Amino acid sequence: LIIRLERSLPTNIQVGAYRIIREAMNNVRKHAMAKKVEARLKTDKRENLRLIIKDDGKGFDLRKALTKKKYVRHFGLKG
User: Fold this and answer.
1) N or C: which end of the chain has fewer CB within 10 A?
2) Per-residue model confidence (pLDDT) at position 37
3) Is residue 67 situated within a structural domain?
């Protein structure tokens, strides 16, 4: 986990970021069969929080996954 922030985040943002990272890591563990996972959390010039998750897992076809009926109204993690 790599964290690069200019300053501390408000507690509610910290909690939200933690939960998102935890969910992403659980998804990698359950579905990707990855041996290596990298999570980067940083702020950009406009102080937007940016989280990037990369793994060496099996991957999937995003277009195909998003066209499945069950994902049409899904608001979980995408891409």
Assistant:
1) C
2) 93
3) yes
Query: Domain limits at 35?
Result: 2-71
Alpha helices in 1-79 (DSSP H): 11-27, 62-67
Give the span between the Cα atoms of 38 and 1, in whole angstroms: 6
Domain count along the chain: 1
Q: What is the pLDDT of residues 52-69, one digit of tens each?
A: 999 999 988 888 877 776
CA distance 66 to 69: 8
Residue 35 resides in a domain = yes
Residue 61 near residue 32 (C-beta atoms within 8 A): no
CA 73, CA 48: separation in Å to the nearest integer?
26
Whichever domain contains 29, its CATH number is 3.30.565.10
